[in-house]
Amino acid sequence: MNESEMILLDSFCGGLGLEIVFAGRGRVTLSSYSVLRPGLQFAGYFKYFDSSRILVIGNSEYEYLRDLAPDVRRERVDKLLSYHDIPCIIFSRDLPVPQEILEAVRRTGCPVLRTEKVTTAVMNDLFFYLNKKLAPSLTMHGVLMDISGVGILITGHSGVGKSETAMELIKRGHRLVADDSVVIKRVAESLVGTSPELIRYFMELRGIGILNIKNMYGSGSVLNEKEIDLVMELEDWVEGKEYDRIGDDTLYETILGKQVMKHVVPVKPGRNLSIIIEVAARNFRLKSMGYDAAQELISRTIGR
User: Could you give the C-alpha distances from 206 to 41, 140, 203, 280, in angstroms and in order?
Assistant: First the structure.
């Protein structure tokens, strides 16, 4: 898990469909997968209170707070907001924000947000959002493509032809996710890849320069993120080296503790790498559905 991630408030609210009531510090710092409904804190119990969690106030908490005597309500709210590292407070069901909370957050800078969704729906949205944002991550050198619905990570040393191959695949109707730098997160049991925001949709071609793929080929040529299903490692052809010719020698690459199927593809003049990668994607889909051409051929041969 990442230690923390700071997200600008506009981006956070846009991703979750939240209304900004009070922007405060203008950012949200996430460091916990958990979300808290602060009913116990409104009742005066602060032992074990984890202020790193997002606070969600639903109908129950709102009505309980409103039933408190004014001086008690102010004291509980002030104590709650004395914890300055609370990421934000979210009100569900379009509930009005009590004056005591507005006064307290103006002193602390804690953002206050609101949504028309019911509390359970808000909690579910936050659960998926936090698990994605705080998932373990790494950055790999390579190109990530969506090939006929299969997420393929193209790797290999600099200059082997990854970007040129990706460009040919884009021309053939496939979609670019990331070029040169791929940010990979492990979300539950899946590896999800995306591009760093700064270079999203851009590609470098030696001899040509920097290209904006979205502007050049349209929005249908790019994708923001994709689950990684297969790794294609390009390497210079080595004379005398034995390469897999049947497909029964399955290789894997371990990324963030998860094994991903891998093919090593030798590069030499005359080989159409884009077609090879397309074929690998289609073959992967067939294998996922239970069909293995190599096994069928072996069975036919042995059966004779």
Answer: 60, 20, 10, 26
**Rounded CA separation 276/281 (Å):** 9
Measured CA to CA, the distance from residue 280 to residue 150 in angstroms comes to: 10
Q: What residue numbers does the annotated binding site for ATP cover?
A: 156-163
Q: How far is residue 114 CA from its own chain's centroid? A: 24
Q: Report how far residue 64's alpha carbon sits from residue 95's, in angstroms, rounded to the nearest whole number.
A: 13
Known binding-site residue numbers: 156-163, 204
Nearest Cα neighbor of 94 from 116, 117, 78, 65 is 116
Q: Where in the sequence numbering do the catalytic residues fall?
A: 141, 162, 180, 245
DSSP reduced 3-state for 247: coil
- Give dist(CA 92, CA 298) in Å, integer: 60
For the cut 90, the answer to whether the pLDDT of residue 229 exceeds it is: yes
Please give the model's pTM, rounded to 2 decimal places.
0.73
